[in-house]
Write a structure and sequence with these properties.
Structural class: alpha/beta
Largest sheet: 10 strands, mixed
Number of strands: 22
Radius of gyration: 19 Å
Number of helices: 10
Shape: globular
Helix content: 10-25%
Strand order of the largest sheet: 1-11-8-7-6-5-2-22-4-3
Length: 371
C-alpha cells in the first residue's frame, strides 16, 4: 500500500483535531505549518549521548574529519556508573554566534536510566529550550514522564514537545513469535503531557525548532529500504488515550490494528556552517538513506557532514545491510555514528566498505561538530 493511498493529508484535518480537542478528546496540541522555511545554520553542535545500548569505559578521545569524540568522564562516586539499556536519548547543544540552544531528543526506555545518566554526565536540563520525540516506540519515550516529573519546573513555562505526527500516540502492539499473537507495546499518553503543561506540536511538515534545528517532516520512501518487522498500531482513542480517529481513513479504522508504517517518524537535523548537514535519525524505520535524502531535499543543502543515530539494521540480513551501507556511503557523509538499533552487522559492514567514515561512540560520550 503506497503512502498516498495510506492516508489523507493530516494538515487538512487540523479543523477536525481542533474540534476533537474542544470536545474533550485531548488538549494542548498545535499543528506545525506547511510553509517553506529558511534553513537555519549553526556554528557548532554538541551531541551528548545520555542513553544508548553500550557504555565503553575504554573509549578514547578522537577526532575524525573535524568531528571530535570525547568519552564520558568517570562518576565521582565509584559506586555509580552510566546505565545502558535498549533505548536512546540525546542532549543537543548548539551555538550560533553568541546564541545557544539546547534540545532533548528522545528519553530512553526508563526514567531511572535517563535520570541517573543526566546526573553523572552533568548536563543541565534547566537549559533545555524544547523537547523532541522521534517516534512512538517506548524505548524512545519511556523516560519522558519521569524526566518531566523531576525537571518540569526547570523548563520553560511554554515548553513544547515536537512530535512527527499523530501516530506517535497510537496504542502499539508487538508480535510474540507466535503467528497472530500480539502483546502490549505501550502508548504515549498525551493526557500525562497536558497534565504537566507540555504542548505537543505535530510536525508532519518540516519544522524549525528554536531557530537552530529543523525536522524533516514525514520521510518519503524513495529507495527500496524495507520497514523491518517490528510493531503494530491500534487506531482510535478511548478516554483520551490513543490516536485521534479523524486522522485515518474509514478503511484503516475498519481494520483497527494495522502494521506500523511509521509515517510519524521524523529526523532532527542541523546545518553546521562550512561543514554541512548533521542528520540525527533515532531509529530509521523509514530507512536511513530515505531520512538523509529527505533532509537534503527540505533544507536545500546537499553536503552531509554527519549521520548519527539508530539505523534499525540490527535484525537485517548481511547482504541487505551491505546494500544499505553502500547506498548511505554513496551520499558521501564525512562521518557515520551508529547507535542503538544499528546493529553490530552495520558496524562490520562499515568497517569493510568505508572504515574511514566510521566513528563508534557509546553512552555518556560527547560528539562535537563544527568550531
Amino acid at each position: 500500500m503506497t503512502d498516498t493511498m495510506r492516508r489523507r493529508d493530516f494538515l487538512r484535518s487540523s479543523a477536525a483535531l481542533a474540534g476533537a480537542a474542544a470536545a474533550g478528546g485531548f488538549s494542548c496540541v498545535e499543528i506545525a505549518g506547511a510553509t517553506p522555511f529558511a534553513t537555519p545554520t549553526v556554528d557548532r553542535l554538541s551531541v551528548r549521548i545520555l542513553v544508548d545500548l553500550t557504555h565503553n569505559i575504554f573509549l578514547r578521545p578522537t577526532e575524525l574529519k573535524g568531528v571530535k569524540l570525547q568519552p564520558a568522564s568517570r562518576a565521582t562516586d565509584y559506586s555509580r556508573t552510566i546505565h545502558t539499556q535498549w533505548g536512546l536519548s540525546l542532549f543537543l547543544d548548539s551555538q550560533r554566534g553568541g546564541e545557544t540552544r539546547a534540545l532533548m531528543l528522545d528519553y530512553g526506555y526508563t526514567p531511572e536510566a535517563l535520570l541517573n545518566n543526566i546526573d553523572i554526565v552533568g548536563v543541565e536540563p534547566g537549559k533545555v529550550d524544547a523537547l523532541i520525540v522521534s517516534h512512538g516506540h517506548f524505548d524512545h519515550y519511556g523516560g519522558l514522564i519521569g524526566f518531566l516529573d523531576k525537571y518540569r519546573a526547570s523548563l520553560p513555562a511554554d515548553v513544547r514537545l515536537y512530535a512527527g505526527g499523530e501516530d506517535n500516540f497510537c496504542h502499539r502492539l508487538q508480535g510474540t513469535g507466535t503467528p497472530g499473537e500480539l502483546t502490549e507495546g505501550g502508548t504515549l499518553d498525551r493526557r500525562a503531557l497536558a497534565a504537566r503543561k507540555v504542548t505537543t506540536v505535530l510536525c508532519e511538515s518540516p519544522t524549525v525548532i528554536g531557530g537552530h534545528a529543523f525536522t524533516t517532516g514525514q520521510i518519503k520512501r524513495r529507495s527500496d529500504e524495507r520497514i523491518l518487522p517490528n510493531t503494530f498500531e491500534q487506531l482510535g482513542m478511548r478516554d483520551g488515550l490513543g490516536c485521534d480517529a479523524s486522522h485515518y481513513t474509514p478503511a484503516e479504522l475498519d481494520r483497527k490494528v494495522i502494521a506500523d508504517e511509521h509515517f510519524h517518524e521524523h529526523a532532527t537535523c542541523f546545518n553546521v556552517e562550512g561543514r554541512g548537514l548533521v542528520v540525527i535519525s533515532s531509529c530509521s524505520h523509514r530507512g536511513i538513506v530515505n531520512a538523509v535524502r529527505q533532509a537534503q531535499e527540505v533544507s536545500g543543502v546537499a553536503k552531509v557532514h554527519g549521520v548519527i543515530g539508530g539505523f534499525h539494521l540490527g535484525p537485517a540480513a548481511p547482504d541487505y545491510t551491505r546494500q544499505i551501507v553502500t547506498e548511505l556511503v554513496a551520499l558521501d557523509p564525512d562521518v557515520v555514528v551508529p547507535m542503538h538499533c544499528s546493529g553490530q552487522n552495520f558496524v562490520e559492514a562499515m568497517e569493510q566498505i568505508a572504515p574511514d567514515k566510521l566513528l563508534v561512540a557509546s553512552a555518556g560520550a560527547r560528539l562535537t561538530f563544527g568550531a
